[in-house]
Amino acid sequence: MTEPPQTAEPSPAPGDPAGDPAPTSSVAGDPSAAGPAPQTPAAVRRRASLVGVVVSVLLILAIVFGSRLLRDFDSALLPYAVATVFLAFGVAYRYTVWISAPGARRLFRQGWRSFFSAANFRRAPTALPRMIATYLGFQKFLGARSHARWAAHQLVFWGCLLAAAITFPLTWGWFTFTSSTGSGPGYEMRIWGFKIIGFDALSVLGWLMFHGLDIAAVLVIAGAAYFLWRRMKDRGAITGQRFAYDLVPLIALIVISVTGLLLTFSSIFLHGGGYEFLAVLHMVSVVFTLIYIPFGKFFHIVQRPAAVGMQLFKYTSRRKDEEAFGCRRCHEPIDTAPYVANLQGTMRDLDLGFDEWAEYCPRCKRVLRGNAYLDHVKKGFK
């Protein structure tokens, strides 16, 4: 939203019946309409640290009990498990700090309110699964920017999702693969000690089971390589990119994927030659990336589901209110009344002092800014 000049208040057009004071002006000073009092940074950090510790302890307990009191836990994977505990703490800490901000907190609450609304489910029962599929899964909004970027993002997304679905449960000892003969080819996959499926390691299913991480690595390399190439060739990307924020995540994904594939190559074609060095290099890159996730660009993975709730709120409010909220100046539709009210509430929470500007369309804001400039600034140069 364009910020209005501090020297002028928005003035309605002459004779405009909508020029009366906006309803929000009368409630701007109402304590019941204002959001909760802002917290001090120290209080936010203390609460975030407490939440992070609680989540970390819960994950440790889940690892202990999910691995049947560590009977199924592989001690060789201990560094990965420790890294996931740090990851849990970092994600919980950063997420708590994020939703402590007025704008994010309001978005978070509106999203969950829409998610658990029985009225929304009755009105649009397929809205939530459709938005999860299109907004989270296939991310169709990226296709409007570039089909190539959308395809590369899909490769990275599904590759990382597949790798996480395999790696985390194995690291925590929740999944185990056992063979009655000790060396196969018959194997059993167990979850929390319960047999789920038996398979032959030499079958197609067995190959997919044991090479799922290799498939994920190929997908990630293809997608990350495209983004890395784009950040080296595209002038717009080069201009605004930062090494630690934009390039390090891509390099980390490529290093993890390449070293993972080299481990498979070493075991199959080199009879284990260089395996120990590659295993250490792979472990270091994975641990670094897991710890980096909460404090770098990858954090948007955690934030994205909250945006789905806001999209659901906008969708259901549009279906409920047939008439969109009209601009106070030109009467062109802006958005639904609940969405405009939500935006004004966020602006009041932030104490910006111009929440009534949410009732003007972008074009009228520019006109009013221009008029204010001519009336209060340009007159000094006559």
Strand content: 5-15%
Class by SSE composition: mainly alpha
Mean pLDDT: 80
Residue share in helices? 55-70%
Number of strands: 5
Q: What's the end-to-end separation, in Å?
A: 31 Å
Unreliable segments of 5+ consecutive residues: 1-34
* Oligomeric composition of the shown chains: single chain
Strand and helix order: HHHHHHHEEEHHHHHHEEHH
Largest sheet: 3 strands, antiparallel
Biggest sheet: strands side by side, in what order? 1-2-3
| SS field, number of helical segments | 15
Shape: elongated
Rg, Cα atoms, Å: 27 Å
Attribute tags:
382 residues; mainly alpha; three-stranded antiparallel beta sheet; two-stranded antiparallel sheet
Explain what you see.
There is one protein chain. It is built from 15 helices and 5 strands. The two termini are 31 Å apart. It has 382 residues and is mainly α. The radius of gyration is 27 Å and the shape is elongated. Helices cover 63% and strands 6% of the residues. The strands form 2 sheets. The protein has a 3-stranded antiparallel sheet with strand order 1-2-3. Helix 4 packs across helix 13 (300-320) and helix 9 (212-233) packs antiparallel against helix 11. The protein has helices spanning 23-27, 41-66, 78-100, 102-115, 118-123, 127-137, 147-172, 204-210, 212-233, 235-240, 243-269, 275-292, 300-320, 337-349, 362-376; strands spanning 175-178, 186-191, 194-200, 325-326, 333-335.
